[in-house]
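Q: I'm writing a short methods note and want an example of a predicted protein-small molecule complex. Could you take the sequence and the SMILES for zinc ion and return the bound structure as tokens? Please keep the output block clean; save any remarks for afterwards.
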Amino acid sequence: MFYTSILESVGVIDFNPRFWLRVDIKNDSSLCWEWRGYLDSKGYGRMNINHTFYGSHRFVFSLMGIDIPPGLVVMHSCDNPPCCNPLHLSFGTHLDNMQDAIKKGRHISCKYPAPVDGRSRSAHSTARYRLKKLFLL
Ligand SMILES: [Zn+2]
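A: Understood, no commentary inside the block.
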């Protein structure tokens, strides 16, 4: 297949066409290779195998003969959820992922800073919901 050599160059050992034909493989391993199949609400690729959905960015590791260590998440260095380029993926803890998100300004706390009045964010959400319900905003 046309993409075998580029896949080999990034460590892939299983050229499963069911998976790789759904990935926009570029002839440049520095670019993102986006999943073209189903995306979840956060933009992550999902594939259905025997009625179970798997994250496409996680499935890449099985095609490299690598098990994801228990308790670790797969992080995108490119911050592009549908990307399946092995060179853009790495393992980390949930804490690593959160710290990376904060460092790059994409964590929810960066977009919606905690209220300064000491009330919790959820208290503000509840108040906003009540206002919307009252005034049908
Ligand atoms: Zn990428």
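A: Remarks, as requested: The longest helix spans residues 121-135. Residues 48 and 54 are 6 Å apart (CA to CA).
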